[in-house]
Write a structure and sequence with these properties.
By secondary structure, the chain is of the alpha/beta class. The protein contains nine helices and eight strands. α2 crosses α4, α3 packs parallel to α5 and α7 crosses α8.
Length: about 230
Amino acid sequence: MTLRVIAIDGPAASGKSSTASLVARRLGWAHLDSGALYRAMTLAVLDNIGERAAGSGSPWSAQQIVALAEGLPVRLVLVDDVFRPEVAGVDVAQAIRSERVTQRVSEVAAIAEVRHWVNVQQREAVQAHARGVVVDGRDIGTVVFPDAPLKVFLTASPEERARRRLAERQGSKDGDAELRREGEVLAARDRADSTRAVAPLRAAADAVVLDTTRLSLEQQVQAVVALARERLPD
């Protein structure tokens, strides 16, 4: 039986989640944003363990984080074909987008035990949804679902990614200085994700690399849907 998974990877602000969500809708599949689960775990850590480890030599305990995630619990709940993150039974889809979570999520996601726990949750979610799941993240095609029949790696220039990130924020002036600062933040995130010891960000050898710098969101979606219908016919 063919694994019905489309793996969409790429750096921050490359359009992964937006593209994956629309591709899933067009195909009638479910959408799973792996980043949302890492963010939910980060939120749980910040709210329940605290911020004491920020930039210090006293890292959070991996065992403590996983035990917290199991106990609260942190989980994915399928609602209208979208896997929604919950913490202790509360929908945290909005809360996980806060700046305090954004600043710390790479630190939590770099912990091997945390990645293993998240990977297990993702695989279980996909197994429970046989119709098909579009999963986006940074190691979906390389680690989580290396046998996925379609792997797509989205890229875009740093300038374009910074512009998109600022456009998501209400009230952003999108000036040159702000754009430059955002570009520096994204570059730092890229370095952290690409050089971490566990599951670094990279394109799978058999991934279709799609540069979206000059593509509209609709063009990105159309390109992935066309690939999906070619490789995963109904």
